[in-house]
Known about the structure:
Blueprint: H1 4-30, H2 35-48
Amino acid sequence: MTTKRDExxxxxxxxxxxENLKRVYEEDTTEKIPDRFLDLLEQLRGQDGK
Length: 50
């Protein structure tokens, strides 16, 4: 049987996990894509036309 205290604790943990995931995702999306990855993507796009 879960108590209200357990439910609040679980909700707080889930909120913290959500906030951390959002923070990591936002940091990832603001980083510049390295030129070598862009070059690889361009090579792959060029293969589509073969």
